[in-house]
Amino acid sequence: MTEANTSSVPAASGEDIQITLTHHGKPLTYSFAQEATISDLSERVEATLSIPPSNQKFLISGKIGLQKPPFKDATLPLTQLTSKKITLMGSTTAQVTSLNTSISAASTPRRPGPIKPATPAPNRNHKRLQEEAQYTFHTLRPLPYLPHPDRSLRFLERLRDDAGIKAAMRTHKFSVPLLTEMDPAQHTTQESRTLGLNRNGGEVIELRLRTDAYDGYRDYKTIRNTLCHELAHNVWGPHDRNFWDLCRRIEGEVARGDWRRGGRSVGPDVFYEPDSGAGEVCDHGGWTGGEFTLGGGGGAETVVSSATGRGVSVGGVSRREVLAKAAEERVKRAKRVEEEGEEMGGEGSL
């Protein structure tokens, strides 16, 4: 449908009258006899513009309003329209034919082409997802009686979801029922600190996440390397050549699989590496036998080391003794640093 803004001019002097209308923004003026009617205007539009009466609409200013064939008053004299603004709206026969052709072509169903075989989405590897669900740490459990267990849980989640750890777990088909944190008080003596523990070939893996004084968390990469060490105990108990070859292999796989190269922080918390004093050991070999009770009491616990075959007490020191010893060691280290600084200052002044 086309639209035109029209304007009419007053009747010319003499016997003829002038009617001006606007179509598509262009004014068109026609001359008619004094007795001409609106039906004569319709016939002239059809003859000159190829707009059939069925497509014609005349928008006339004033009370007359919209008029279209067949007119209610076909004898309306054009002399009443000489002072009116007239807009012609309508489509030509060619335009209507073209529009109908386009509608028909669009509504005609197209013949379907050959069906292409479905291809899997490139970003979804179902086999890998299945392996990651099978070869993982199935339960993560912080120690509920230590401060802020939610932070420990996020640390354990970060280890489980580490890209390098996940790659190594899939490669070696490691499935660990429980990954938990270690209570520093239960595995700290005056001689050594145990960083990790693997019980019964991967039934439970414990990691020392916290510092000795419970006031922070250890460096993430240090804990991750300890986890690699404990995963190697899933296969080999004693610290022999077989164990160390596997441990180094796992560490390399984790480093290569960590596409983040350095990882990310766990929420807003800051995990720092404490002073690494003497006597820190990953473990004393893979542990077999014994009973594991999460959050158990402070009594001594005896397990059997597959490296030595002997029973070893791993819980004979109370938490108070550990905290006192840790505070004492921090004071000693601070004093040594101060003394060394004074000695260096004295030597430089000579």
UniProtKB/TrEMBL annotation:
One of its GO terms (molecular function) is proteasome binding. Residues 111-120 have a biased composition (Pro residues). PROSITE patterns: UBIQUITIN_2, WLM. InterPro entries: Ubiquitin-like_dom, Ubiquitin-like_domsf, WLM_dom. Residues 128-332 form the WLM domain. SUPFAM superfamilies: Ubiquitin-like (SSF54236). Residues 17-64 form the Ubiquitin-like domain. Residues 102-124 are annotated as: Disordered. Pfam families: WLM. PANTHER family: DNA-DEPENDENT METALLOPROTEASE WSS1 HOMOLOG 2, UBIQUITIN AND WLM DOMAIN-CONTAINING METALLOPROTEASE SPCC1442.07C. This is WLM-domain-containing protein. The lineage of its organism: Eukaryota, Fungi, Dikarya, Ascomycota, Pezizomycotina.
